[in-house]
Amino acid sequence: MNRESFRxxxxxxxxxxLGYFAVAFTFGMMAVSGGLSTSQAVLISLxxxxxxxxxxxxxxxxxxxxxxxxxxxxxxxxxxxxLMSFSLSQKLERGIPQIHRYIVAxxxxxxxxxxxxxxEGKLSPWYNYGAxxxxxxxxxxxxxxxxxxxxxxxxFLVSAMGIAIYGMFLAVIIPPAKTNRAVLxxxxxxxxxxxxxAYVPVLNKVSSGFVIxxxxxxxxxxxxxxxxxxxxxxANSNES
Amino acid sequence: MNHNVYIYxxxxxxxxxxxxxxxxxxxxxxxxxxxxxxxLFYVPYACLAAMTFxxxxxxxxxxxxxxxGFAVALxxxxxxxxxxxxxxxxxxAVFIVERILAFLA
Lengths: 240, 105
What we know:
The structure holds 2 protein chains of 2 kinds.
Chain A: H1 3-33, H2 38-48, H3 51-63, H4 67-91, H5 98-106, H6 110-117, H7 125-149, H8 155-161, H9 164-179, H10 181-199, H11 208-226, H12 234-237
Chain B: H1 5-26, H2 34-52, H3 63-78, H4 83-104
Helix pairs in contact in B: 3-4
Protein backbone atom coordinates (compact mmCIF):
# COMPACT_ATOMS: atom_id res chain seq x y z
CA MET A 1 0.00 0.00 0.00
CA ASN A 2 1.06 3.54 -0.67
CA ARG A 3 0.81 5.48 2.60
CA GLU A 4 1.60 8.86 1.12
CA SER A 5 -1.16 8.63 -1.50
CA PHE A 6 -3.63 7.26 1.02
CA ARG A 7 -2.97 10.11 3.41
CA UNK A 8 -3.35 12.70 0.66
CA UNK A 9 -6.62 11.07 -0.33
CA UNK A 10 -7.89 11.18 3.24
CA UNK A 11 -7.05 14.88 3.47
CA UNK A 12 -8.74 15.76 0.18
CA UNK A 13 -11.66 13.58 1.20
CA UNK A 14 -12.52 15.71 4.24
CA UNK A 15 -14.24 18.58 2.39
CA UNK A 16 -15.95 16.00 0.20
CA UNK A 17 -17.22 14.11 3.24
CA LEU A 18 -18.52 17.34 4.80
CA GLY A 19 -20.30 18.34 1.61
CA TYR A 20 -21.75 14.85 1.29
CA PHE A 21 -23.01 14.92 4.85
CA ALA A 22 -25.10 17.99 4.07
CA VAL A 23 -26.53 16.64 0.81
CA ALA A 24 -27.12 13.15 2.23
CA PHE A 25 -28.88 14.72 5.19
CA THR A 26 -31.45 16.12 2.79
CA PHE A 27 -31.70 12.73 1.09
CA GLY A 28 -32.32 10.97 4.41
CA MET A 29 -35.03 13.45 5.31
CA MET A 30 -36.76 13.10 1.96
CA ALA A 31 -36.54 9.31 1.97
CA VAL A 32 -38.18 9.03 5.39
CA SER A 33 -40.87 11.57 4.56
CA GLY A 34 -41.50 9.55 1.38
CA GLY A 35 -42.27 6.43 3.43
CA LEU A 36 -38.94 4.57 3.54
CA SER A 37 -37.35 3.47 6.79
CA THR A 38 -34.11 5.08 7.94
CA SER A 39 -32.22 1.81 7.44
CA GLN A 40 -33.48 1.53 3.86
CA ALA A 41 -32.34 5.09 3.18
CA VAL A 42 -28.89 4.31 4.61
CA LEU A 43 -28.74 1.09 2.55
CA ILE A 44 -29.43 3.09 -0.62
CA SER A 45 -26.64 5.53 0.25
CA LEU A 46 -24.17 2.76 1.11
CA UNK A 47 -24.76 0.83 -2.10
CA UNK A 48 -25.27 3.69 -4.58
CA UNK A 49 -23.03 6.54 -3.42
CA UNK A 50 -24.46 9.03 -5.89
CA UNK A 51 -26.58 12.10 -5.29
CA UNK A 52 -28.61 12.82 -8.42
CA UNK A 53 -29.26 9.13 -9.07
CA UNK A 54 -30.51 8.52 -5.54
CA UNK A 55 -32.87 11.49 -5.55
CA UNK A 56 -34.30 10.40 -8.90
CA UNK A 57 -34.52 6.78 -7.74
CA UNK A 58 -36.29 7.84 -4.57
CA UNK A 59 -38.95 9.63 -6.62
CA UNK A 60 -39.61 6.44 -8.56
CA UNK A 61 -39.71 4.24 -5.44
CA UNK A 62 -42.14 6.59 -3.74
CA UNK A 63 -44.29 6.76 -6.88
CA UNK A 64 -44.21 2.95 -7.21
CA UNK A 65 -42.65 2.98 -10.69
CA UNK A 66 -41.45 -0.14 -12.49
CA UNK A 67 -38.05 -1.78 -12.03
CA UNK A 68 -37.28 -1.03 -15.67
CA UNK A 69 -38.00 2.61 -15.14
CA UNK A 70 -35.63 2.83 -12.18
CA UNK A 71 -32.91 0.91 -14.04
CA UNK A 72 -33.16 3.17 -17.09
CA UNK A 73 -33.21 6.33 -14.99
CA UNK A 74 -30.06 5.26 -13.13
CA UNK A 75 -28.39 4.41 -16.42
CA UNK A 76 -29.13 7.81 -17.92
CA UNK A 77 -28.36 9.93 -14.87
CA UNK A 78 -25.20 8.00 -14.01
CA UNK A 79 -23.86 7.50 -17.50
CA UNK A 80 -21.54 10.42 -16.85
CA UNK A 81 -19.60 8.10 -14.52
CA UNK A 82 -18.84 6.07 -17.62
CA LEU A 83 -16.90 9.03 -19.02
CA MET A 84 -15.18 9.59 -15.68
CA SER A 85 -14.17 5.93 -15.37
CA PHE A 86 -12.94 6.06 -18.95
CA SER A 87 -10.80 9.03 -18.03
CA LEU A 88 -9.54 7.33 -14.84
CA SER A 89 -8.73 4.13 -16.76
CA GLN A 90 -5.98 6.18 -18.44
CA LYS A 91 -4.83 8.00 -15.34
CA LEU A 92 -4.43 5.00 -13.01
CA GLU A 93 -0.93 3.61 -12.53
CA ARG A 94 -0.01 0.91 -15.03
CA GLY A 95 0.47 -2.69 -13.96
CA ILE A 96 -1.55 -2.67 -10.75
CA PRO A 97 -3.65 -5.78 -9.95
CA GLN A 98 -7.07 -5.80 -11.59
CA ILE A 99 -8.86 -5.83 -8.22
CA HIS A 100 -7.89 -2.18 -7.66
CA ARG A 101 -9.89 -1.16 -10.71
CA TYR A 102 -13.01 -2.85 -9.32
CA ILE A 103 -12.67 -1.08 -5.97
CA VAL A 104 -11.79 2.33 -7.41
CA ALA A 105 -14.87 1.98 -9.66
CA UNK A 106 -17.22 1.87 -6.67
CA UNK A 107 -15.98 5.28 -5.53
CA UNK A 108 -16.24 7.10 -8.85
CA UNK A 109 -18.36 10.09 -7.88
CA UNK A 110 -18.35 13.61 -9.28
CA UNK A 111 -16.26 14.91 -6.39
CA UNK A 112 -13.83 12.01 -5.96
CA UNK A 113 -13.32 12.06 -9.71
CA UNK A 114 -12.78 15.81 -9.51
CA UNK A 115 -9.97 15.59 -6.96
CA UNK A 116 -8.33 12.50 -8.44
CA UNK A 117 -8.34 14.07 -11.91
CA UNK A 118 -6.51 17.06 -10.45
CA UNK A 119 -3.62 14.89 -9.14
CA GLU A 120 -0.31 15.34 -10.93
CA GLY A 121 0.90 12.49 -13.10
CA LYS A 122 -0.38 8.94 -12.67
CA LEU A 123 -2.94 8.12 -10.03
CA SER A 124 -2.42 5.62 -7.21
CA PRO A 125 -5.60 3.70 -6.30
CA TRP A 126 -4.68 4.36 -2.67
CA TYR A 127 -5.40 8.04 -3.19
CA ASN A 128 -8.97 7.10 -4.14
CA TYR A 129 -9.23 4.71 -1.18
CA GLY A 130 -8.24 7.55 1.15
CA ALA A 131 -10.91 9.83 -0.28
CA UNK A 132 -13.49 7.01 -0.20
CA UNK A 133 -12.69 6.32 3.48
CA UNK A 134 -13.98 9.80 4.35
CA UNK A 135 -16.57 10.31 1.63
CA UNK A 136 -18.51 7.06 2.14
CA UNK A 137 -18.98 7.53 5.91
CA UNK A 138 -19.92 11.18 5.31
CA UNK A 139 -22.56 10.15 2.78
CA UNK A 140 -23.98 7.28 4.86
CA UNK A 141 -23.92 9.06 8.23
CA UNK A 142 -25.50 12.14 6.66
CA UNK A 143 -28.33 9.95 5.40
CA UNK A 144 -28.68 8.36 8.84
CA UNK A 145 -28.77 11.74 10.59
CA UNK A 146 -31.27 13.11 8.09
CA UNK A 147 -33.49 10.04 8.41
CA UNK A 148 -33.49 10.16 12.21
CA UNK A 149 -33.99 13.88 12.64
CA UNK A 150 -36.76 13.98 10.05
CA UNK A 151 -37.80 17.54 9.55
CA UNK A 152 -36.29 18.82 12.76
CA UNK A 153 -33.64 20.79 10.93
CA UNK A 154 -34.83 24.31 10.17
CA UNK A 155 -35.45 24.99 6.49
CA PHE A 156 -33.03 27.92 6.33
CA LEU A 157 -30.13 25.68 7.34
CA VAL A 158 -30.99 23.09 4.69
CA SER A 159 -31.28 25.88 2.13
CA ALA A 160 -27.82 27.23 2.98
CA MET A 161 -26.23 23.77 2.75
CA GLY A 162 -27.69 23.06 -0.67
CA ILE A 163 -25.05 25.18 -2.37
CA ALA A 164 -22.05 23.43 -0.75
CA ILE A 165 -21.51 20.84 -3.46
CA TYR A 166 -21.49 23.46 -6.23
CA GLY A 167 -18.96 25.53 -4.32
CA MET A 168 -16.69 22.49 -4.35
CA PHE A 169 -17.11 21.99 -8.08
CA LEU A 170 -16.16 25.61 -8.68
CA ALA A 171 -13.08 25.20 -6.48
CA VAL A 172 -12.00 22.33 -8.77
CA ILE A 173 -12.62 23.97 -12.16
CA ILE A 174 -11.86 27.68 -11.64
CA PRO A 175 -8.14 27.66 -10.67
CA PRO A 176 -6.99 25.76 -13.83
CA ALA A 177 -9.25 28.02 -15.92
CA LYS A 178 -7.21 31.03 -14.79
CA THR A 179 -4.03 29.85 -16.49
CA ASN A 180 -5.36 27.65 -19.31
CA ARG A 181 -7.50 29.51 -21.83
CA ALA A 182 -8.83 26.30 -23.37
CA VAL A 183 -10.08 25.14 -19.98
CA LEU A 184 -11.69 28.55 -19.46
CA UNK A 185 -13.44 28.15 -22.80
CA UNK A 186 -14.62 24.67 -21.85
CA UNK A 187 -15.99 25.88 -18.49
CA UNK A 188 -17.88 28.83 -20.01
CA UNK A 189 -19.02 26.77 -23.00
CA UNK A 190 -20.34 23.94 -20.84
CA UNK A 191 -22.22 26.37 -18.58
CA UNK A 192 -23.73 28.06 -21.63
CA UNK A 193 -24.83 24.80 -23.25
CA UNK A 194 -26.37 23.43 -20.07
CA UNK A 195 -28.19 26.75 -19.61
CA UNK A 196 -29.69 26.35 -23.08
CA UNK A 197 -31.02 22.97 -21.97
CA ALA A 198 -32.47 24.52 -18.84
CA TYR A 199 -34.24 27.52 -20.35
CA VAL A 200 -34.97 26.98 -24.07
CA PRO A 201 -38.40 25.46 -24.73
CA VAL A 202 -38.35 21.84 -25.99
CA LEU A 203 -34.68 21.52 -24.95
CA ASN A 204 -35.71 21.89 -21.31
CA LYS A 205 -37.67 18.65 -21.60
CA VAL A 206 -34.40 16.70 -21.72
CA SER A 207 -33.63 14.97 -18.41
CA SER A 208 -30.76 16.34 -16.33
CA GLY A 209 -28.65 13.21 -16.73
CA PHE A 210 -28.77 13.46 -20.51
CA VAL A 211 -28.03 17.18 -20.39
CA ILE A 212 -24.76 16.49 -18.58
CA UNK A 213 -23.78 13.74 -21.01
CA UNK A 214 -24.65 15.72 -24.15
CA UNK A 215 -22.95 18.86 -22.85
CA UNK A 216 -19.80 17.00 -21.83
CA UNK A 217 -19.49 15.12 -25.13
CA UNK A 218 -20.16 18.25 -27.17
CA UNK A 219 -17.96 20.72 -25.35
CA UNK A 220 -15.04 18.41 -24.55
CA UNK A 221 -15.21 17.08 -28.13
CA UNK A 222 -15.07 20.54 -29.70
CA UNK A 223 -12.27 21.59 -27.34
CA UNK A 224 -10.24 18.47 -28.18
CA UNK A 225 -10.69 19.22 -31.88
CA UNK A 226 -9.90 22.94 -31.68
CA UNK A 227 -7.23 22.92 -28.96
CA UNK A 228 -5.61 19.50 -28.78
CA UNK A 229 -3.50 19.06 -25.66
CA UNK A 230 0.21 18.82 -26.45
CA UNK A 231 1.97 15.67 -25.31
CA UNK A 232 2.48 16.27 -21.62
CA UNK A 233 5.71 15.40 -19.93
CA UNK A 234 4.12 12.35 -18.39
CA ALA A 235 7.42 10.52 -18.40
CA ASN A 236 8.80 13.05 -15.90
CA SER A 237 5.95 12.81 -13.46
CA ASN A 238 5.67 9.03 -13.58
CA GLU A 239 8.02 8.25 -10.74
CA SER A 240 6.18 10.44 -8.21
CA MET B 1 -46.05 0.69 -3.03
CA ASN B 2 -46.61 -2.86 -4.25
CA HIS B 3 -42.99 -3.24 -5.34
CA ASN B 4 -40.27 -4.51 -3.05
CA VAL B 5 -38.06 -1.66 -1.86
CA TYR B 6 -35.04 -3.95 -1.62
CA ILE B 7 -35.34 -4.99 -5.27
CA TYR B 8 -35.47 -1.32 -6.22
CA UNK B 9 -32.30 -0.75 -4.23
CA UNK B 10 -30.59 -3.77 -5.79
CA UNK B 11 -31.45 -2.60 -9.31
CA UNK B 12 -30.26 0.95 -8.61
CA UNK B 13 -27.00 -0.22 -7.06
CA UNK B 14 -26.33 -2.79 -9.79
CA UNK B 15 -26.84 -0.39 -12.69
CA UNK B 16 -24.83 2.36 -11.01
CA UNK B 17 -21.89 0.06 -10.26
CA UNK B 18 -21.80 -1.43 -13.77
CA UNK B 19 -21.71 2.04 -15.33
CA UNK B 20 -18.71 2.92 -13.17
CA UNK B 21 -16.92 -0.39 -13.40
CA UNK B 22 -17.09 -1.43 -17.06
CA UNK B 23 -14.85 1.30 -18.54
CA UNK B 24 -12.25 0.78 -15.81
CA UNK B 25 -12.30 -2.99 -16.20
CA UNK B 26 -12.39 -3.10 -20.00
CA UNK B 27 -10.05 -0.30 -21.05
CA UNK B 28 -6.63 -1.48 -19.94
CA UNK B 29 -4.47 -0.17 -22.72
CA UNK B 30 -3.00 3.27 -22.83
CA UNK B 31 -4.81 5.34 -25.43
CA UNK B 32 -2.47 7.01 -27.90
CA UNK B 33 -4.91 8.98 -30.05
CA UNK B 34 -4.21 12.70 -29.44
CA UNK B 35 -7.88 13.51 -29.99
CA UNK B 36 -9.12 11.01 -27.39
CA UNK B 37 -6.42 12.08 -24.94
CA UNK B 38 -7.37 15.74 -25.36
CA UNK B 39 -11.03 14.85 -25.06
CA LEU B 40 -10.42 13.03 -21.78
CA PHE B 41 -8.38 15.97 -20.51
CA TYR B 42 -11.37 18.30 -21.02
CA VAL B 43 -14.06 15.91 -19.75
CA PRO B 44 -13.82 16.81 -16.02
CA TYR B 45 -14.07 20.55 -16.68
CA ALA B 46 -16.98 20.25 -19.09
CA CYS B 47 -18.79 17.79 -16.85
CA LEU B 48 -18.39 19.69 -13.56
CA ALA B 49 -19.21 23.04 -15.21
CA ALA B 50 -22.36 21.60 -16.78
CA MET B 51 -23.46 20.18 -13.44
CA THR B 52 -22.80 23.46 -11.61
CA PHE B 53 -24.54 25.94 -13.86
CA UNK B 54 -27.45 26.66 -13.95
CA UNK B 55 -28.30 24.07 -11.24
CA UNK B 56 -26.59 26.23 -8.60
CA UNK B 57 -29.23 28.94 -9.14
CA UNK B 58 -31.99 26.66 -7.82
CA UNK B 59 -29.94 24.99 -5.08
CA UNK B 60 -31.14 27.31 -2.29
CA UNK B 61 -34.39 28.82 -1.05
CA UNK B 62 -34.33 31.83 -3.36
CA UNK B 63 -32.62 32.85 -6.58
CA UNK B 64 -31.18 35.97 -4.92
CA UNK B 65 -29.31 34.04 -2.23
CA UNK B 66 -28.17 31.54 -4.85
CA UNK B 67 -26.72 34.27 -7.08
CA UNK B 68 -24.85 35.82 -4.15
CA GLY B 69 -23.60 32.38 -3.07
CA PHE B 70 -22.48 31.67 -6.64
CA ALA B 71 -20.61 34.99 -6.81
CA VAL B 72 -18.91 34.38 -3.47
CA ALA B 73 -17.91 30.85 -4.52
CA LEU B 74 -16.52 32.15 -7.83
CA UNK B 75 -14.38 34.76 -6.09
CA UNK B 76 -13.14 32.30 -3.45
CA UNK B 77 -12.34 29.69 -6.11
CA UNK B 78 -10.55 32.35 -8.17
CA UNK B 79 -8.40 33.11 -5.15
CA UNK B 80 -7.59 29.38 -5.06
CA UNK B 81 -9.11 28.70 -1.64
CA UNK B 82 -9.47 25.02 -0.70
CA UNK B 83 -12.56 22.98 -1.58
CA UNK B 84 -13.99 23.18 1.92
CA UNK B 85 -13.33 26.92 2.28
CA UNK B 86 -15.10 27.71 -0.98
CA UNK B 87 -18.05 25.51 -0.04
CA UNK B 88 -18.37 27.00 3.46
CA UNK B 89 -18.06 30.60 2.26
CA UNK B 90 -20.84 29.97 -0.26
CA UNK B 91 -23.04 28.45 2.48
CA UNK B 92 -22.38 31.41 4.80
CA ALA B 93 -23.20 33.91 2.04
CA VAL B 94 -26.49 32.13 1.32
CA PHE B 95 -27.31 32.00 5.02
CA ILE B 96 -26.66 35.71 5.55
CA VAL B 97 -28.56 36.81 2.44
CA GLU B 98 -31.57 34.70 3.39
CA ARG B 99 -31.56 36.21 6.91
CA ILE B 100 -31.57 39.70 5.36
CA LEU B 101 -34.34 38.76 2.91
CA ALA B 102 -36.44 37.35 5.73
CA PHE B 103 -35.87 40.56 7.70
CA LEU B 104 -36.95 42.75 4.78
CA ALA B 105 -40.02 40.67 3.96
